[in-house]
């Protein structure tokens, strides 16, 4: 199967040697998103909730550029520098996803790029 590189200006540009997403057949691998504002490439100002919403908005923009939506996500990985925010992520995730929810992992990490508290990546299957 041929790989298709997914890119959109509605999500932050890659800050390293990676693509926003790669599509192989009907599966799309979305790279990690942090709470960057696409237009300025700066971390969004505000509390943790605002940052989580920005991450979901960025993932959503990449999903749409690939021809899908967050409802097509089958696996979501959440990286947190403080696992005490897990409940907040759950509450906000319910605003972006409907049942059946994707499989998910929440992983505590020491640090993330640009010293942000949250990053998420996903795997999406189109047409499922």
Note down, in words, how this protein is organized.
This protein has a single domain (3-125), classed as 60s Ribosomal Protein L30, Chain: A (2-Layer Sandwich). Helices cover 23% and strands 32% of the residues. It is built from 2 helices and 8 strands. The strands form 2 sheets. Strands 1-2-3-8-6-7 form a 6-stranded mixed beta sheet, with helices on one face. The protein is globular. The protein starts with a strand and ends with a strand.
Produce the secondary structure layout:
Elements: E1 3-6, E2 21-24, E3 27-33, E4 36-37, E5 42-43, H1 48-65, E6 73-80, H2 86-96, E7 103-108, E8 118-125
Parallel strand pairs: 6-7
Antiparallel strand pairs: 1-2, 2-3, 3-8, 4-5, 6-8
Largest sheet: 6 strands, mixed
What is the averaged pLDDT score? 97
Q: Give the CA-based shape.
A: globular
- Order of strands in the sheet with most strands: 1-2-3-8-6-7
Q: Which percent range fits the helix content?
A: 10-25%
Helix run count:
2
Please outline what is shown here.
With 128 residues, this protein is an alpha+beta fold. It has helices at 48-65, 86-96, and strands spanning 3-6, 21-24, 27-33, 36-37, 42-43, 73-80, 103-108, 118-125. The chain has a six-stranded mixed sheet, with helices on one face.
């Amino acid at each position: 199967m041929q790989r298709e590189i997914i890119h959109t200006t509605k999500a932050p540009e890659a800050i390293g040697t990676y693509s926003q997403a790669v599509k192989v057949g009907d599966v799309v691998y979305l790279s990690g998103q942090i709470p960057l504002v696409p237009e300025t490439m700066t971390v969004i100002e505000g509390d943790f909730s605002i940052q989580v919403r920005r991450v979901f908005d960025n993932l959503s923009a990449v999903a749409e550029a690939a021809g899908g939506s967050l409802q097509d996500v089958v696996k979501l990985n959440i990286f947190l520098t403080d696992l005490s925010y897990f409940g907040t992520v759950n509450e906000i995730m319910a605003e972006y996803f409907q049942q059946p929810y994707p499989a998910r992992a929440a992983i505590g990490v020491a640090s993330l790029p640009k010293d942000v508290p949250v990053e998420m990546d996903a795997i999406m299957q189109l047409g499922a």
